[in-house]
Amino acid sequence: MANAAFAAATVAAQGVAALLGGRVGCVVDGQVVEGQGAALTLDDPATGLPLLGYRDAGAGVAREAAAGAARAQKVWIALSAAERGRRLWALGAAIRAEAEALALLECANTGKPLRDCRGEVARVAEMAEYWAGWCDKVEGRVVPVPSGHFVTVRREPMGVVLAITPWNAPLFTAGWNVLPALAAGNAVVLKPSEYTPLTSAAFGLLAVKAGLPAGLVQVVAGAGATSGEALLGAPEVAMVTFVGGAVSGARIAGACAARMIPCVMELGGKSANIVFADADLPAAVQGAQQAIFAGSGQSCVAGSRLLVQRSVHDRFVEMLAEASSRIRLGDPLDAATEAGPVCNARQFEHVRALVSAGAAEGADVFTAPRGRALPEAGFWVPPTILAGVTNQARVAQEEIFGPVVAAIPFEDEAEAIAIANATPFGLAGAAWTSDVGRAHRVAAAVRAGTFWINGYRTIHVSVPFGGFGASGHGRSSGQEALMAYTQAKAVWVETAAVPALGFGHRPAGVGG
Fold first, then answer.
1. Is the CB of residue 494 less than 8 Å from the CB of residue 486?
2. pLDDT digits (tens, 9 = 90+) for 136-154
3. FRET label pair with 424: which of 135, 370, 453, 489, CA 20 to 30 Å apart?
4. CA-based torsion, 425, 427, 431, 436: positive or negative
């Protein structure tokens, strides 16, 4: 993969030159600034070789970013709602204009196939356009009360929102979390993963180019233990939205609770993809591949538990293994590639350890592509099926976050539901069946924030998304997100000619 390494380094350098002015760092008040902390290195996931380097933001830059965001939010909210909408729409246009450069940069940094990156850039532009339309529709209401008062309820922005995003889809999750907060009138400090800061920084610069106030979208590139901690303690931060693992989410939610500020938590999953014997099995096989092998399984909603009715279990696993052997693995920058490497060395070791644990627990291991050797260098994990697994196995309970699925047999509908719910997670799930009644029963019974019937892994900015239980709380899209990013204020106006005041005395000699 030496040529691929050279190509990735070249593409990354070209993208940084075109989108970031040749510098890798934070975006503070509309300018790329160098961090003050330790040196960090970005690796090429396809080869494991160094790609680019930058400096951790550190506490000083983090505090400066939070203070600048608070100033910019006052400028933003002073604009008319319609004007804010026009500027968000312009941001969507700016993203479309730089779509190919953004996709190439994302591909080089994350190892995600170029065709996937192109699709995600287009969806971020769509998010900007969607939320632009909401800016002048954040409305209040009038509440009839049993007194002489005229009572209105206003929806007001939180102020400064801290958005902490992951490495699996950095640009997509930046748009997903930043844009609704902006539509609600907030400023955002975006803290991307230290592994994948490049397109998030480009997003921050494109926001200024589109006419958003400098500082409205601050991007702090650095590690969670340093820059992230400094931002969590910044007094300007009034709310946190976090996308990531449950352990980190619990710690961040605890920090928010200590400061008495709200948070939206979009955490991990161990989603059940349920295949009944009466399903269209070829379609379910394709859906199972999309559920777990798209994006190399690095998705919070991945269908990492494949529940198959026992009467078709063995045949279905064979069908899935054969079909998955034709998935095209290769250089992420090749438009024909369907699956790339895992994003970073730490995750690579985690995935491999859990595959080994599954084998040790007695799972039958099927891997693809058959007959083709994977590169020795880089973070490559083949599409892997662990068959004959029980729901108590470690691979059925822990989030793997890689292209690995645990296939679990079940007898009937009741057992399928029981297995699906036998996890602390509750992010997503699916059922494949030709029985309409069963489809609705299972969708109602499985505890998950998103559930698909005869499909998998489709989401849209207009639809609420979030989890139950250990998968988090709050919703980060759809109209529900506007409620999360605003707070209600009740305003009471006395209208009675003689108010019925229940206490106190008028000044002597004044009034009737």
1. no
2. 999 999 999 999 899 999 9
3. 453
4. positive
CB within 8 Å of 176: residues ≥ 6 apart: 127, 243, 461, 476, 477
Q: How far apart are CA 208 and CA 187, in angstroms?
A: 13
CA atoms of 243 and 241, how far apart (whole Å):
7
User: Which pLDDT band, with edges at 50, 70 and 90, does 413 fall under?
Assistant: very high
If one counts every other C-beta atom within 10 angstroms of the C-beta of residue 500, the result is 8
Which residues are within 8 A (CB) of 126 and not within 5 positions of it... i.e. 6 or more apart?
Answer: 92, 461
Candidates 266, 338, 399, 413; catalytic one: 266
Pick the catalytic residue from 300, 343, 399, 413.
300
Q: What is the 3-state secondary structure (H, E, C) of 335-352?
A: CCCCECCCCCHHHHHHHH
Structure token pair of residue 407: 């296939």
DSSP assigned state of 374:
P
Q: Is pLDDT above 60 for 85? A: yes
- 């204020």: which residue's tokens? 489
343: annotated active-site residue:
no
Instruction: Verify whether residue 266 is a known catalytic residue.
Output: yes
CB atoms within 10 A of CB 72: 22
212 and 76 Cβ atoms separated by less than 8 Å: yes
pTM score, whole prediction: 0.95
